[in-house]
Amino acid sequence: ASVAGGEEAGASEDWKQAYLNWLSASEYADACTYSLIYVDEDEIPELVADTGVEAGGCQIVTWHDKKTDVLQTDRLYFNYLEKGNLLCNSEGHMGYYYDNIYTIKDGVWELLYSGTYHDPESGPQLDENEIDYIYEYEWQGQSVEQSEYERQLAAVYPAQQAAEPEKYYIMDEMSSILKTGETTSVNHRY
Fold first, then answer.
1. Each residue of 98-133: b (16+ CB within 10 Å) or e?
2. In this predicted structure, what is the pLDDT of residue 100?
3. Which pLDDT score, from 0 to 100, does residue 186 have?
4. How far apart are CA 7 and CA 190, in angstroms?
5. Which ranges constitute the DSSP H helices of 79-170?
6. SS3 state at 77
7. Residues 6+ apart with CB under 8 A from 56
8. Counting Cβ atoms within 10 Å, is residue 163 exposed (0-12), middle (13-18) or buried (19+)?
9. What's the count of helices (H) and strands (E) in the chain, helices before strands?
10. What digits encode the pLDDT tens for the residues 91-150?
């Protein structure tokens, strides 16, 4: 069975070769792990390159009209709506957090919505019960209350329907999948 399955007949070799070319040009290809996911509605998957390092984030490659485009995530975590053409990069560090919602438009990644929440300028503060931190929230660059931030985010990104990559492969395995549709260990018994 093919891991990538369901390609359009005329485009199947083109996107695979484009991803192989992208991998071979990547300076850190052997240090990453890889997955194929379906973000937009077409039958060509997006290639995920996970650096395994928070500061390095992930690169998510899409192919359209004989060109690749790369989304560099901030830090590692993201999820997506399979074939729903939405991807959410939600992460943060040391009092600054964000939710960035992307789509693929004509083969190019586009930021649709952005929200942040962070410590007040005066520094970290706990609520009156001294349990939860108090953050300042912004949605699309406008200050909002926490409840409005959560409402706006939920209105544009149904997180309960989101998926994450199911399986990651090392460089040699992803190259084999792109070349043959199968891992190098297929039909081998150990």
1. bbbbbbbeebebeebbebbbbbeeeeeeeeeeeeee
2. 98
3. 57
4. 31
5. 146-156
6. coil
7. 76
8. middle
9. 3, 10
10. 988 899 999 999 999 999 999 999 999 999 998 888 888 888 899 999 999 999 999 999
Q: Quick check: 126 and 155 in contact, CB under 8 A?
A: no
Q: 């693929």: which residue's tokens? A: 104
Neighbours of 161 (CB within 10 A): 12
Burial 164-187 (b: 16+ CB within 10 A, else e): ebeeebebebbbbbbeebebeeee
Residue with tokens 């990644």: 109
Q: Tell me, what's the pLDDT at 5?
A: 44
φ, ψ of residue 59 in degrees (nearest 5): -115, 130
Rounded Cα distance between 142 and 45, Å, is: 34
- In total, the chain counts a number of residues equal to 190
